Amino acid sequence: MNTDIGESSFTPFWCAIQVAPRHEMTVSKILSNKGYEQFTPTYRVKRQWSDRVKHLDYPLFPGYVFCRIQKGVAAPIYTTPGVMRIVSCGGSIGTVEDHEIDNLRKAMISGRALSPSSWTQGQKIRILRGPLAGITGTLRCIANAYQLILSIDLLVKAVSVAVDAADVTAEVEDDSRPAPDRSIDSIARVVDLASR
């Protein structure tokens, strides 16, 4: 997480905007109309009423909208109806890393079911094949099924997406070290031991 964006920085960066409850979509539309690039990831839920079944979209990060801004050009965001604040750290606007937004976008267009998840630290993995190829995250095993946890570190929140065991390999931080056992079984053992 990078919070020091510098005084002379005019490079656009992603930030998290906290919004009033159930105002995520409204704020997204207003920000888009103001010319801001925004992103509000959602997931689909099936709801049963007495007379019908309806599919509804809910925000994956309730109470937050992601927006790409430049330093010093945040004033129009504060005046947007429904905006409570821009998430900050140490007096500076907190930035959301580009790769975190890219991973979420890729997971959304993959067609796989997403759901909110708890933020976890653990074995970092990379998806090798399929619609999620190239995404990195944390592996979690629940009831013999593997889930990739995608986190937004600034918010300490995450989402999960189901992954195939054959598509996963361990993420290596430093290529100069000998390659560890990257099989899904060894990764699962590490995750299982960490969850005890």
List the helices and strands and how they pair.
Layout: E1 13-19, H1 24-33, E2 37-39, E3 42-48, E4 53-59, E5 64-69, H2 75-78, E6 83-86, E7 88-89, E8 92-93, H3 98-109, E9 114-117, E10 124-127, E11 136-142, E12 145-152, E13 157-163, E14 168-170, H4 184-194
Q: What spatial order of strands do you see in the largest sheet?
A: 9-13-12-11-10-14
Relative strand content: 35-45%
Largest sheet: 6 strands, antiparallel
The SS-based structural class is alpha+beta
Radius of gyration: 19 Å
The rough form would be described as: globular
Low-confidence stretches: 1-8, 175-183, 188-196
Topology order in helix (H) and strand (E) letters: EHEEEEHEEEHEEEEEEH
Mean pLDDT: 83
Account of the 3D structure:
The protein is an alpha+beta fold and about 200 residues long. The protein folds into 2 domains: about 15-95, NusG, N-terminal domain (Alpha-Beta Plaits); about 100-195, no CATH class. Helices cover about 20% and strands about 35% of the residues. It has a 6-stranded antiparallel beta sheet with strand order 9-13-12-11-10-14. Strand 7 (about 90) and strand 8 (about 90-95) form a beta hairpin.
